[in-house]
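Researcher: I'd like a structural prediction for the single chain below. Treat it as a standalone chain; there are no partners to consider.
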Amino acid sequence: MPENITGIDGLVPVTGDHDTLTDLVDARALRDSVGESSPGGGFGPRLVRLQHDRPLGYSLSCGVGSRRGNHLALTLPDSALGEKPDSPASAIIADSLRAVVSSWAPRHGTIVSDVFGRAQKYNRSKREIPVGWLTYLSEDIELDSWRMPDDVAVEKVRGGIYLTLPGHPQYPSLDAALAVRRALGYAR
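Model: Treating it as a single chain, here is the predicted structure.
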């Protein structure tokens, strides 16, 4: 897979073939400083789809050996999020997170823009979890349900819960996110 995708000609299609997918994941395995695959380090494939004949890149980081434990981050360009929570683009992104959670079984996962994550002032060094428009929390993460705001949708699933904040997927309610963070036991 090319390191820098500069146009449609640089795209490599991904098939459902097991060997091809295995090679893709292995090629994107997280590496140490000397380039060797880190045992238990996870993987980080970069994916691209065409949107109006232009490549739109996505990256996925699934980590197990980091300070934050087994987690995932789905990084999307701003233009990937739909205009409304019920838009087709938003549904595809939510389904993407659900698919990765289902197969990877992380402790947590979220759909959050960089701007919205920074607005929460979460502390990575303390292993705080950023809260996004859609956030997955495994059942081993403590959450004070009494402190949860009424406008946050809670969906119980096998192994954890999904929290959906009110508002636009890219810019959900910061007040609701901060209330969820308090329910997680964070000061802010």
